[in-house]
Write a structure and sequence with these properties.
The chain has about 170 residues and is mostly helical. Helices cover about 70% and strands about 5% of the residues.
Length: about 170
């Protein structure tokens, strides 16, 4: 969709070539902890091997100065990448893959330049809303008001907003 494409372009702008994340202890310890737990709990040695390969793929992208660039980070997370494909795996393999991606995401979020932090926060919010709306879009690409109100009311926060007569932006739109 156009909205998803626009958000993708914004993320590319945020994580441009000028953005570099230095591999640090927090990232390294997180990855090692995830791989250690995976080695102890995954029932198939081949699954552990695949997970190790995904981490090796990340580490292969680290430059001599110990950094990964923004565009490389984006490539590691995009559709068709090893990590993205592994995330779709059922059970613990998918869980551990998402955890590894989470460590990578955290590394970049901690190193994002201050001048891009607000744009990242706004883009993340828009992406979250898009993901929330995706299941209610009908076959014509429209969102029926009743379905939109369902989302506005969902979860504890939504119920509380509705109880106080404040459906938030989604409730008002519905």
């Amino acid at each position: 969709s156009a909205a998803k494409r626009d958000l993708g372009k914004t993320y590319q702008e945020i994580y441009g070539p000028d953005v570099k994340a230095r591999i640090d202890d927090k990232f390294s310890h997180g990855i090692l902890d995830t791989l250690d737990r995976a080695g102890q709990t995954l029932d198939d040695p081949n699954k552990v091997k695949v997970l190790n390969k995904a981490v090796s793929n990340i580490l292969d992208k680290v430059k001599d100065d110990g950094t990964i660039s923004g565009p490389v980070y984006q490539g590691l997370r995009q559709t068709g990448s090893v990590l993205k494909d592994l995330e779709k795996s059922p059970g613990l393999l998918g869980d551990y893959s998402r955890e590894i991606k989470g460590h990578l995401d955290d590394l970049f979020r901690r190193t994002i330049p201050p001048d891009k932090a607000d744009l990242l926060r706004q883009t993340d919010q828009q992406y979250a809303i898009m993901k929330q709306l995706r299941p209610v879009v009908d076959e014509t690409g429209n969102i029926p008001p009743a379905r939109l109100m369902q989302i506005a009311r969902s979860g504890d926060a939504g119920k509380e907003r509705m109880a106080f007569g404040k459906g938030g932006d989604l409730g008002e739109l519905a």
